[in-house]
UniProtKB/TrEMBL annotation:
Protein name per its UniProtKB record: Nitrate- and nitrite sensing domain-containing protein
Database matches in Pfam families: ANTAR (PF03861), NIT (PF08376)
Positions of the ANTAR domain: 361-422
Xref: InterPro entries: ANTAR, CheY-like_superfamily, Nitrate/nitrite_sensing, WH-like_DNA-bd_sf
Coiled-coil blocks: 354-381
Gene3D superfamilies registered for this protein in UniProt: Winged helix-like DNA-binding domain superfamily/Winged helix DNA-binding domain
Keywords for the protein's UniProt record, in alphabetical order: Coiled coil
SMART domains found in the cross-reference section: ANTAR
C-alpha cells in the first residue's frame, strides 16, 4: 500500500483528478454540441409554427409535422448526452447553479408536446408561439452560458464564449425569421412587430460583434462566408420590405415563402460556423487529455508538478521572508510577519507573479474600456443605419455607404456623423 504521506501519492492523485476533470469537461462539450443541434431544430420548428399560425392553418401543416419528428430525434440525442453527466454516474464536479439551469431547461422541454398541440389547434397567435418557443430555447442557452463559466483553461473559455455569443445571435436571427414569417403570412407588419424586428436586428449585431472578438481565425473565415452568402442580397431586400412596406405591397407575392427560405439559408450558414467551433472544442479537449496522460508517464513530471503546486493559481496573500538572514547565517525564524519591509522581503518568484498579474489586469481593463467604446460607437452607427433604412427605404449597404460618404465629405468620424444624424431625427 502506498504511503499516504508520500510526495508521489499526492502527485499521482493530482494527475488522476486532472484527467478526470478534463474528461468530464469533454463530456460537457458533447452536451453543448447536443444543445446546439437541438436549438437548430427548435428554431426551425418555431419558424414553421408561425407560418402555420400566420396563415390561419392554411400553410405548412405537413412540413410542421415532419419537423416535429426531426426535433424529437435531436431531443433524444440531447438526453443521451445528458445521461453521461448525471450524478449517479459519478459526475459531481459542477456548481449547484449549473444543475438548476439544467433543471429549468428540462422543465421547459416538458411543455413542448402541449405547445405543439396548441399550435396545431390554432389556440393562440404568433406572438404567443414565438414567446413560448423562445423561452424554451433561452433556457437551453443558459446551460451553455454556465458551461462557458466553468471552462478549464483560457483557450476553452474563448471557444465557449465565442460559441455562446454566436448561438445567442443565431437565436435572435431565428426570432427574426419567426417574426417575419408571421408578418409576411398575414400580409401585414403592425408597428409593434416592426419595432420588435428592429430590436432583434440590433441585438444580433451586438452578439455577432462579441463573437468576432473571441473567435479563432478558422471560425472568422467561416463567418466571412456567411457575410458573402448568395442569400444575403435577397435577405436584405426582404428585411427592408418587412420594415417599410405597406399591406398592399406585401399582398402581391409569396413573400412568406421566400423570406422563410432565405432566413433558413442564413441560419444554416451560421450553424456551420457553430460546427467549426464545436470541432475546435472537442479537438482541444482531447489534446489536453492526451497531453496530461503522456506527461504522467514522464520521469521528469514529478518535479514539474511540484513547481506547479507551488505557483499555479496562487491565492492573493503575500509571502514574507526575513531580511535578518545573511549569507552563511540562517535565522531561527525564516518566515516573518507583516512588520517587515514588504518591498525587500517578498520572495522574488512571488513578486514577479504579482507584477505579472497586475500587468494582465491593467491590460484587461484597457481592453474592456476599448471594447465598451467600440460597442457604443457601433450601436450609434447601427441605429443611424436603421433610421436611413426606414426613412429612405435603403438597403443596409446603401445606408452604410451614405454615412461613410457624409463622413468623408465633412472630414468627420463615421460615429460623429451617425450621432449627428440621430440628433436630427429626434427633433423631427
Amino acid at each position: 500500500m502506498q504511503d499516504l504521506h508520500s510526495v508521489a501519492y499526492f502527485l499521482n492523485l493530482g494527475q488522476q483528478q486532472e484527467i478526470q476533470e478534463l474528461e468530464q469537461f469533454a463530456r460537457t462539450g458533447q452536451l453543448v454540441i447536443a444543445i446546439s443541434n437541438l436549438l437548430h431544430q427548435l428554431q426551425y420548428e418555431r419558424g414553421l409554427s408561425n407560418r402555420f399560425l400566420g396563415s390561419a392553418g392554411l400553410r405548412c401543416q405537413q412540413e410542421l409535422q415532419q419537423q416535429w419528428h426531426s426535433s424529437n430525434e435531436q431531443l433524444a440525442l440531447f438526453h443521451k448526452a445528458l445521461a453521461n453527466l448525471l450524478p449517479e454516474h459519478g459526475q459531481h464536479a459542477f456548481p449547484a447553479r449549473w444543475f438548476r439551469r439544467l433543471g429549468y431547461a428540462l422543465h421547459s422541454l416538458e411543455r413542448l408536446p402541449q405547445l405543439r398541440q396548441d399550435v396545431e389547434q390554432l389556440k393562440f397567435n404568433t406572438t404567443v408561439a414565438i414567446k413560448a418557443y423562445s423561452e424554451m430555447i433561452q433556457s437551453l442557452l443558459a446551460v451553455v452560458f454556465e458551461a462557458a463559466g466553468n471552462a478549464a483553461d483560457e483557450i476553452t473559455a474563448r471557444i465557449l464564449v465565442a460559441m455562446f455569443n454566436l448561438m445567442q445571435g443565431k437565436e435572435l436571427a431565428g426570432q427574426e425569421r419567426a417574426c417575419g414569417a408571421a408578418g409576411f403570412s398575414a400580409h401585414e407588419f403592425d408597428p409593434g412587430l416592426r419595432q420588435r424586428l428592429t430590436q432583434l436586428i440590433d441585438r444580433q449585431d451586438r452578439c455577432f460583434h462579441i463573437f468576432t472578438d473571441y473567435a479563432s481565425d478558422e471560425a472568422l473565415s467561416a463567418w466571412e462566408q456567411v457575410q458573402r452568402g448568395e442569400f444575403q442580397l435577397e435577405f436584405e431586400r426582404l428585411r427592408r420590405l418587412a420594415l417599410t412596406a405597406g399591406p398592399q405591397s406585401l399582398a402581391a407575392a409569396d413573400y412568406d415563402v421566400r423570406w422563410f427560405i432565405c432566413c433558413s439559408e442564413r441560419l444554416d450558414a451560421i450553424k456551420y460556423v457553430e460546427e467549426v467551433l464545436e470541432t475546435q472544442l472537442l479537438s482541444h479537449s482531447q489534446q489536453r487529455i492526451l497531453a496530461v496522460r503522456e506527461a504522467a508517464l514522464s520521469p521528469d513530471q514529478q518535479g514539474h508538478d511540484l513547481q506547479r503546486g507551488a505557483f499555479d493559481d496562487v491565492p492573493s496573500f503575500a509571502l514574507y521572508v526575513s531580511h535578518s538572514q545573511s549569507a552563511g547565517h540562517e535565522s531561527d525564524h525564516t518566515l516573518s510577519g507583516p512588520d517587515d519591509d514588504m518591498v525587500h522581503n517578498v520572495s522574488k518568484p512571488v513578486v514577479e507573479l504579482i507584477e505579472a498579474q497586475g500587468q494582465r489586469l491593467k491590460s484587461l481593463n484597457d481592453e474592456l474600456d476599448a471594447a465598451r467604446t467600440e460597442l457604443h460607437e457601433r450601436k450609434l452607427i447601427d441605429r443611424a443605419k436603421r433610421e436611413l433604412i426606414q426613412r429612405r427605404q435603403m438597403s443596409e449597404q446603401e445606408a452604410y455607404a451614405l454615412l461613410r460618404s457624409m463622413a468623408m465629405n465633412q472630414n468627420r468620424r463615421l460615429v460623429d456623423v451617425a450621432a449627428g444624424l440621430l440628433s436630427m431625427t429626434e427633433l423631427l
